[in-house]
Structure formats: structure tokens, C-alpha cells
């Protein structure tokens, strides 16, 4: 049976980098948000054994370094089955764009494999496998609006933000995430970053999210009905931001300019996604978003109009076909 699914992208609504951990990663806090842009993944299990990846994009590895390969290998072992797994990746998302393309692909393969084999792993086991493959892989097992803690792999569903028009600009720049973290560490070591300890910065970010959650949930003391009607605006007005901008923008000033164009075009919030290079803008209306996308495209910056997705929309549109 051949299973075809959509592999959606994500953006980061704020990303706070905390202290280095004993495992070599950094402590993180971020709010993930899935969006409607996607790749198409097709999975089929044939007789024999092995894993085969097919993709026309030269930037996508077709060996064991591919996240799809890694998760398929682990899933087949966990499901205690064998077969020749054929994975076709129709790439529409940019490679190294900060949109979680490879991570979303991995989860798409995992869930498609379950359908193809008519077997299912426990939810906790899927989250464990996803976390082994990559820090931002587990979020795609949740969808919608998600809190990421730890190194980003520990995920918790948040109250969904209403679907919001979004413009994704994808400058043809490849930003290395390991290098961005290294640059962040250098900045922190030089004491040019902030006088606030990294652990305290994590706490401050967490408090902002907690304050937003208390208002969005309508608890006593919140602004109540007015706040609940604009949860997205309330979230971005808490002051959350993406720390990577402090090291990526100085190296790639053209990315800062893209963000400025989105803001001047009426974005209620604009930010680097992950370590980049994708820059997104959230808009109050589709018309305003469309105008901004056209403006960027005319200036030579690839840009596309899309929308954020609620958790229900994410799962409703995930499966394309089973044949």
C-alpha cells in the first residue's frame, strides 16, 4: 500500500537560548506554530529489506544521514517488522530554511509507515523516536501551537491560535544552525549579549508565556473577553523574540532588511524562523499579506502567502491518500 501525506512546515513564535547543557545542547524555550506550506511524502513498503529515498532536490541526502532514513530505521525496529521502505520526497520547502522541513518529513514518514503496515506505536514511543532523530521533530506529532522546552524536543500543546495570514520569505541563503549556536556562545562570552544570566533569560521567557496562557484561558485577573479575541496579538506583545536574530542578522544584513520590509508592509509580528534563513510576517488580513508577498517578490526575494494552522486543521489535512 502506498501512503501519501503532507509534511507541513513550522515557524517559531519567539525562541530563547539558554545555558549550555551537559549533553552539548542548549536549553531552549520556544513556541512552535505549524503553517500550511508543505512537502509531499509518499511511503511504500515492499518485499526484501532496506531503505530507499527518492528525491529530485540535490540538497536532500539520500543516505542514512537523512532524517527520513533515521526515523524509518527506528520505526521498523520498534514495529518489529521488515521490508523494503521506499520514501519519495516531493520537496517544496527550502532546505536549511528554519521551517523544519526535514523534521516534518521524518514525522510524515513515521506516520505513513504505520498506515502502510497497519500497525501503530504508542504515542510515547513515537515521541521518543522522534526526539532521537532531532530536537524539532516531536512538534510535528502534535501540530498547531506548541510549547517547546528542553532542547526543543519536549513538547506541550498550547491553546490554538486562530488561523492567521502569514507571508514566508525565503532568501537564497543557507544558515548553519551549529554555526549560529557557536556565534551565540561567542557573543555571550564577550559579555556583549546581556547582563542577565542565561538561566534567568529562560525564566523570563517562560513567565511571558505563562502570563499569556493565563489570559488566553480566561482565568480571573486576565483581561477576559477582549484578550481571548486576539490571542496571537497578545502573545507577540509579551515581548517574545528570536535570539538567533542577534547573531544571524549581523552576518546576513539582507535578512534584517527582509524583516523590515515585512514590518513596513503591515506585519503585526515578523521574525526569523529558527536559525533562518526564512523570515515570516503575520498579518491581520489576507489582502495585506498578499500585498507584502508581492512587494518582496518584485524586489527579488522569494515570498509566498500562506496561513498558520490550528491543530484540527493540521491533522485534517495531513493524509492525502491511501492506495
Write up what this structure looks like.
Helices cover 37% and strands 26% of the residues. The chain is globular. Helix 1 (67-78) runs antiparallel to helix 3 (123-133). It has 2 domains: 2-159 and 311-322, Ribosomal Protein S5, domain 2 (2-Layer Sandwich); 165-307, 2-Layer Sandwich (Alpha-Beta Plaits), CATH 3.30.70.890. The strands form 2 sheets. Strands 1, 2, 3, 4, 5, 6 and 11 form a 7-stranded mixed β-sheet that branches. A 4-stranded antiparallel β-sheet has the order 8-9-7-10. The chain has 11 helices and 11 strands. The chain has helices at 67-78, 101-117, 123-133, 177-189, 198-216, 225-228, 231-236, 245-251, 253-264, 286-298, 311-316; strands at 2-20, 26-46, 50-54, 84-90, 145-149, 154-157, 165-169, 269-272, 279-282, 303-307, 319-322. It is α+β, with helices and mostly antiparallel strands.
List the helices and strands and how they pair.
Blueprint: E1 2-20, E2 26-46, E3 50-54, H1 67-78, E4 84-90, H2 101-117, H3 123-133, E5 145-149, E6 154-157, E7 165-169, H4 177-189, H5 198-216, H6 225-228, H7 231-236, H8 245-251, H9 253-264, E8 269-272, E9 279-282, H10 286-298, E10 303-307, H11 311-316, E11 319-322
Helix pairs in contact: 1-2, 1-3, 8-9
Q: Please, how many domains?
A: 2
Beta-strand segment tally: 11
Termini separation (Å)? 6 Å
Structural class: alpha+beta
Residue share in helices? 25-40%
Gyration radius, rounded: 20 Å
Question: What would CATH call the architecture of the largest domain?
Answer: 2-Layer Sandwich
Query: What's the pLDDT, averaged over the residues?
Result: 90
Number of separate helices = 11
How much of the residues is beta strand, in percent?
Answer: 25-35%
Low-confidence stretches: 217-229
Biggest sheet architecture: 7 strands, mixed
Dominant shape: globular
Do you know the CATH topology of the largest domain?
Answer: Ribosomal Protein S5, domain 2
CATH class of the largest domain: Alpha Beta
How are helices and strands ordered from N to C? EEEHEHHEEEHHHHHHEEHEHE
Amino acid at each position: 500500500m502506498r501512503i501519501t501525506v503532507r509534511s507541513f512546515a513550522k515557524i517559531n513564535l519567539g525562541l530563547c537560548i539558554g545555558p549550555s547543557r551537559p549533553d552539548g545542547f542548549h536549553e531552549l524555550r520556544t513556541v512552535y506554530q505549524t503553517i500550511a506550506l508543505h512537502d509531499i511524502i509518499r511511503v511504500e513498503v515492499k518485499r526484501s529489506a532496506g531503505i530507499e529515498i527518492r528525491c529530485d532536490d540535490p540538497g536532500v541526502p539520500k543516505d542514512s544521514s537523512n532524517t527520513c532514513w533515521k526515523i524509518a530505521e527506528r520505526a521498523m525496529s520498534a514495529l518489529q517488522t521488515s521490508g523494503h521502505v521506499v520514501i519519495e520526497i516531493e520537496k517544496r520547502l527550502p532546505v536549511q530554511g528554519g521551517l523544519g522541513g526535514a523534521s516534518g518529513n521524518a514525522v510524515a514518514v513515521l506516520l505513513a509507515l504505520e498506515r502502510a503496515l497497519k500497525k501503530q506505536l504508542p504515542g510515547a514511543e513515537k515521541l521518543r523516536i522522534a526526539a532521537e532523530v532531532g530536537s524539532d521533530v516531536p512538534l510535528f506529532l502534535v501540530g498547531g501551537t506548541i510549547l517547546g522546552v528542553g532542547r526543543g524536543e519536549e513538547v506541550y500543546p498550547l491553546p490554538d491560535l486562530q488561523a492567521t495570514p502569514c507571508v514566508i520569505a525565503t532568501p537564497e541563503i543557507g544558515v548553519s544552525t551549529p554555526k549560529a549556536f557557536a556565534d551565540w556562545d561567542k557573543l555571550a562570552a564577550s559579555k556583549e549579549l546581556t547582563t542577565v544570566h542565561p538561566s534567568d533569560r529562560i525564566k523570563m521567557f517562560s513567565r511571558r508565556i505563562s502570563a499569556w496562557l493565563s489570559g488566553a484561558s480566561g482565568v480571573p485577573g486576565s483581561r477576559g473577553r477582549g484578550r481571548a479575541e486576539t490571542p496571537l496579538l497578545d502573545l507577540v506583545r509579551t515581548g517574545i523574540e528570536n535570539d538567533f536574530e542577534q547573531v544571524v542578522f549581523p552576518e546576513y544584513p539582507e535578512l534584517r532588511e527582509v524583516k523590515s520590509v515585512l514590518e513596513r508592509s503591515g506585519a503585526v509580528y515578523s521574525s526569523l524562523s529558527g536559525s533562518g534563513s526564512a523570515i515570516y510576517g503575520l498579518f491581520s488580513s489576507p489582502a495585506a499579506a498578499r500585498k507584502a508577498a508581492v512587494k518582496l517578490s518584485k524586489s527579488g526575494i522569494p515570498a509566498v502567502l500562506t496561513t498558520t494552522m490550528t491543530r484540527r486543521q493540521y491533522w485534517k489535512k495531513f493524509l492525502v491518500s491511501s492506495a
